[in-house]
Predict the structure.
Amino acid sequence: MKQKWRKGILGILFIILLVGCSSAPRYTYSGDSEHWEGKVDVSAKDHGKYQLLLTYDGEFEDISTIKELSYSIEMGGFNQEYTFGFSDGPSSKSFKSNINNIKSEVNDGDVIDLKVQWADQEESLQLEKD
């Protein structure tokens, strides 16, 4: 009887431990400008790895012929530029990018500055923690 009781308690403790360790906090920073919406997902588990989703907030036809989309991102002392190249124009209004090997952390209250350049236009976004 005692052995069944111990197994039951150990099983419950194991499940609590497993659930507690597998759910690392995730944070989302978002913001928009006249033509763009930006969102950066940050996982506390994966330090230095972020995922950016940049979405054009207009008609697809407006960007369907662009050959290049560039953005720069600045956060917590990190500053980097990235470029998407398109031989036949983009295939959608959304652009996803993984940003890796960032040596600085984004802290509570920090703002992520994003600058987007496309078709001789430029806009800035400030992404704040949701």
